Amino acid sequence: MTHGSADKDDAERYDLAAQWWVRLDAGALSSSELRAFRAWLASDPRNEAAFEEACDLWGAWERAPKALAEAYVEKCAPTPWRRWLRPAAALAVACLALALGFEPLWLMWRADFHTGTGELRTVVLPDGSRAHLNADTALALNYGGDRRRLTLISGEALFEVESDPSRPFVVEAAGAEIAARGTAFDIATDRNRTEVTVTEHVVEVTGAGAPQRVEFGRQTAFGPALAAVAPYEVDPERVTAWRRGRLYFKDKPLGDVIAALGRYHRGLVLVTSRAIKDRRVTGVFRTDQPLEALRAIEKSLGIKSTRLSDYLILLHS
After folding, report:
1. How many CA atoms lie within 13 A of 182 on its CB side?
2. Does pTM top 0.85 for this prediction?
3. What is the greatest pairwise CA distance in the chain?
4. What does the mean pLDDT of the chain come to?
């Protein structure tokens, strides 16, 4: 076998190991699939080494589902210390899987409307208003009587509100309320920060510190440790460019950029250090080409990546 073909075999082996990791990470496999996985591990010591490297590199024991714990622990040789470690490791992994893996199910249970990775959706509300949902977004509806209320559970949405002076249109996001009577505005929320951008007329933001009146072409932001800031000027066309398949970033931390691109990429992108996460990014990227965006960012920031496949990417110095 030539050196080139050996490299190709190794690349294919690591790609297959990553695919098994992703499949196990996605949820419990059937009995026949678990047998196929164990057979693949046992067929060649290099397969086991590739899979162990995938687990080590991606911290599989910190976030893998119960299926991975059961499949991989059963494969291990029964040394005395492993006999003691297996139940504890499997239990810890299973508990972490329950905490992490069931969050999407919990969001879907709470939501009346939701989108998946790379999916955009427009919802016509009972009063004729429209909610344009970005990828990976969950929205709950609570209309009734004189009430027009919604909850943006996660993600991002652009609301085009039908005028009705008698019934304010209120969206709850991250514990705050954004109220309008006839306008258009965008809300993007995650665990760390929520941004409200007005694309028509004006909205009122309450419940996140001092009330803020946000007018066209301006944005406010708030978070768990940040009261709503005084509105500042932004370009609404750039903020809502996701509807046209583009993402604009101006001096944004890499960690935030990776999170935004993650809405359009089925896989994991991990950053090894806070210093790299804090690097600043400016650029325009296509939502249908998240991997190309990552390559451009790597080149512009002078950072490196280790790829077990397109589904598992590690960014490092």
Report:
1. 5
2. no
3. 78
4. 81
